[in-house]
Amino acid sequence: MNTEFTLTQYDEAAHYILNHTRHRPAIGLVLGSGLSSLADQIEDADTIDYGAIPHFPVSTVPGHTGRLVIGRLAGAVVCAMQGRFHYYEGYAMQQVTLPMRVMQRMGVGQVILTNAAGGLNPDFHVGDIMVIEDAINFLGMAGANPLRGPNLDEFGPRFPAVNRTFTKSLRELARKVAAAQGLTLQHGVYASLSGPNFESPAEIRMLRVLGADAVGMSTVPEALVAHHAGLQVLALSTITNVAIAEVDAANEPTHDEVIDAGKVIVPRLTALLIGILGELAMHDKGNAS
Ligand code: HPA
Q1: Global pTM value
Q2: Which residues are catalytic?
Q3: Strand partners, 27
């Protein structure tokens, strides 16, 4: 199967979605492991199963629902992905990141990516939310890069810079909204690995030495492709477990633990996202008038 999509194919997916919703979303939202329930808050929702959208892969992980929910959240018109695609599921990187380009073709200008992550920074606790400031793209560095293959100049350049991937104004907005809610946000560097196994203790110690604060199996390919396509990116990691750096530790990380922690974090993350979306919607209206 050819997984290097053409502009026509991205447009086929974008047109299908726009033909099946009353809304014209401005903001894309990707809901990570255990965070799907957030989409239940979306008003006037139009839902579209991934399976119906041309060229869309179908998500296979428990905790990832597999549909788009398009509607209003805090006054903002959002296109939320209830479930994302991961490299470890067997998809090509171009499939993992396809929704970013499709959203760009739909007219989306900003994406908010969320994920579940293991905390590496010793100051992090389960339940914390980390604003991603920068990333180490181990997969991309090793060759599994979503921008590999013929470049589509309509999206962005062959050799993109990535130092401004995570949009400063959105990171500042997240911090401002959190402070108003009495929520302390962490911030730091996210390391993306393939998974599906959790990291070995030696890998955890290596990641710490390399300057990573959190580790996970998603987000960076999407952020890279979104940034390449000119979208503003905000990425939030929910710390669902603390990385285990000792071989003989009594406990071990599990997906159930990740999902359970997600349930605790969802109300906090929901409040934060609603606050951020409210500000973005207000800003949009200010610009329009
Ligand atoms: N490692 C990788 N991915 C994860 C983790 C982790 O500890 N927790 C949630 N996603």
Answers
A1: 0.94
A2: 33, 64, 86, 88-89, 116, 217-218, 241, 255
A3: 78, 110
